[in-house]
Structures are given as structure tokens and as C-alpha cells.
């Protein structure tokens, strides 16, 4: 069977400093939907781009990588209620209809509510995206003007059809932290995000920030084999500024391709753009000097951490190349 992968579309610049709150890796899940006859709604939440597999069918018809409802034969529209893994303030959305051509919805709208107790019966829903026209096989980026955190979304599609991916771009809103609380400030669900990186040929550094351990070698950050002097790196914006107490670097599943060493540089910077951070990062002071790594292992560092003031950005250096599955940066906030 021939597999086609959705074209990579560059995010609008003002989306690039935001996190996809609808990522299944964040714990986002489907609560309910009006119909999912042709394709399960939870496929919309997958982090990898949609794909199209020629000739693949199941008992319900053509297999599609997204949420697809049956053809509506009465008045009304289809809807899907989504629970975000973490509360957040939304600034933009991408309703992606990749590979949905003769079966995409004519239009879509979004409603949102804040219900941390999951009691949706009495929740107040607010429309955050008016009913907007959609196109086939297309990324639809919409700006959202909102200043209150939300926990649940309702995607309405008119009248029926399929959506490949739903991306909800915003900022994580964490519960108030008691002073001195130790949390993983690099974790995606705590607001950590990737600012930039040298290479991601085999695996994107976003995987470093995902919950749990990597499920296989593809669930990590892996670069191509380096054929020139130097080393690979990625910059992580921490979800909160803090004083780093412990660092974990996990090379799960990387055996013949783990890095020889890793080091970490760090800084505290306010109001810095990603474009400013990247060239300056090579001069940041070291939080963790070169440390040898081994295959398929969680490396914990406490005593080797250089004592610094609070930091909110780190640069992970992978020397010279290879793969790392996860990084955990435990800090008091």
C-alpha cells in the first residue's frame, strides 16, 4: 500500500511560541461526539501529521486518518467535545482537512468552557470561533481572542464530514504552586516548548518533553549522523522559571546511536524572541558540564549541576549526534 504524508506547513510566526494544547501526548482526550462512523475522533489529536494510505479499507469504508462522520440525512450538524490535558489560554487554532477532499465539512465553529471538575452539564459555553468556511485538504489557521483559561472544547462541523487534525495553540495555565514546589519545568504539560534545534532528521525534539518514557526509538529526538565537526543542540523554553535541583536524561531505546556526551547551558531572559535566543545560546553559562551517556538508560544528575540563579531557558547539547528519548528538568518554582 502506498502511504502519503501530509505536507508540512509552517506555522504563522505568532503561533510558534505557543503549545498545541490538543495534543494527545498532553493527555487531551475525546469526551463524546455526535458520530464517528467512518473514523474515530481521537485520531484528530495525534501529534504526527495526517497520512493517507491508498487501498486501505475497514468494515466501515475507506480508512481515513482523522475524525469522519457519516453522511447526514436530516437537519443538524456534527460535533465533538474534547477535554484538554491541561487548562490553557487559547490564541489560535488549526483545523486541518488534509486528505479530506470530497468529504470535508463546509464550515466549522468552536466553543469553549472552563470546567476543571468535568461537570459539563452546568458549564457555560462561549463561542471562540464563529462558523467559518473550510476548504479541502488544507490547514485553516484562525486567531482566537481569549484571555480566560479553558478546559474543554466543542468542535462543530457543518453539516458533516472529516477533519484530519485539530491543533489548539495557547499557553498552559498551571494551578498555583506553593513556594519551593519541585516540578519538571521542561515537561510539555507544564508549559515546556522547543525554541530551536540543529537537526531533527529521524525524530523531533518535541518528543523530549512528552510524558512517560519513550515507547520506541522513533519516540525521541534523533539527528542524522554528523559528518562535520561540532555537535547537535536544541533550546527549550521552560514552562516556569526556577532553580534547577535535578536533571534526568533518558536514552531509552537508543543503543547503537546514543550520544557520547551531553551538556546543558542555561539562562534567565525576559521578553527575548526565539530569533534572538538561538545565536546567543552558544555563550550561555553551563548548568551541566559534559557528562558521558550510556545506552538505553536514565541518567540522573544532582551533584554535578552548577548552582545558578533561576533559569527559564536551557540548551541541551548532544555530543556529537545521536538520539535522546526524554529530558526532565526538576526545579523549585
From TrEMBL:
Biological processes per GO annotation: allantoin catabolic process; purine nucleobase metabolic process
GO molecular function: allantoicase activity
Catalytic activity: allantoate + H2O = (S)-ureidoglycolate + urea
UniProt domain Allantoicase: residue ranges: 27-172, 191-332
Pathway this chain belongs to: Nitrogen metabolism; (S)-allantoin degradation; (S)-ureidoglycolate from allantoate (aminidohydrolase route): step 1/1
Keyword tags: Hydrolase, Purine metabolism
Family: Belongs to the allantoicase family.
NCBIfam families noted in UniProt: allantoicase
The protein's name in its UniProt record: Probable allantoicase
Amino acid at each position: 500500500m502506498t502511504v502519503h504524508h501530509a505536507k508540512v506547513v509552517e506555522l504563522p510566526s505568532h503561533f510558534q511560541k505557543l503549545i498545541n494544547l490538543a495534543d494527545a501526548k498532553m493527555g487531551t482526550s475525546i469526551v463524546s461526539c455526535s458520530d464517528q462512523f467512518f473514523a474515530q475522533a481521537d485520531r484528530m489529536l495525534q501529534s504526527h501529521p495526517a497520512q493517507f494510505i491508498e487501498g486501505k479499507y475497514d468494515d466501515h469504508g475507506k480508512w481515513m486518518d482523522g475524525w469522519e462522520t457519516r453522511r447526514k440525512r436530516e437537519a443538524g450538524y456534527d460535533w465533538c467535545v474534547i477535554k484538554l490535558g491541561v487548562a490553557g489560554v487559547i490564541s489560535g487554532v488549526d483545523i486541518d482537512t488534509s486528505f479530506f477532499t470530497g468529504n470535508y465539512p463546509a464550515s466549522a465553529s468552536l466553543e469553549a468552557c472552563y470546567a476543571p471538575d468535568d461537570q459539563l452539564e452546568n458549564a457555560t459555553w462561549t463561542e471562540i470561533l464563529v462558523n467559518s468556511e473550510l476548504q479541502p485538504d488544507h490547514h485553516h489557521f484562525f486567531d482566537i481572542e481569549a484571555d480566560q483559561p479553558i478546559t474543554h472544547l466543542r468542535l462543530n462541523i457543518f453539516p458533516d464530514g472529516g477533519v484530519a487534525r485539530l491543533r489548539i495553540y495557547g499557553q498552559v495555565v498551571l494551578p498555583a504552586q506553593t513556594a519551593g514546589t519541585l516540578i519538571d519545568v521542561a515537561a510539555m504539560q507544564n508549559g515546556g516548548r522547543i525554541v530551536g534545534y540543529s537537526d531533527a532528521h529521524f525524530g523531533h525534539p518535541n518528543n523530549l518533553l512528552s510524558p512517560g518514557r519513550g515507547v520506541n526509538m522513533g519516540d525521541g529526538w534523533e539527528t542524522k549522523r554528523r559528518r562535520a565537526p561540532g555537535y547537535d543542540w536544541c533550546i527549550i523554553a521552560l514552562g516556569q522559571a526556577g532553580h534547577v535541583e535535578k536533571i534526568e536524561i533518558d536514552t531509552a531505546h537508543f543503543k547503537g546511536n546514543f550520544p557520547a556526551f551531553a551538556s546543558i547551558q542555561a539562562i534567565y531572559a525576559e521578553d527575548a524572541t526565539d530569533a534572538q535566543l538561538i545565536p546567543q545560546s552558544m555563550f550561555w553559562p553551563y548548568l551541566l558540564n559534559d557528562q558521558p551517556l550510556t545506552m538505553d538508560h536514565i541518567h540522573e544528575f544532582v551533584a554535578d549541576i552548577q548552582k545558578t540563579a533561576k533559569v527559564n531557558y536551557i540548551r541541551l547539547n548532544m555530543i556529537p549526534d545521536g538520539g535522546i528519548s526524554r529530558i526532565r528538568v526538576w526545579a523549585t518554582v
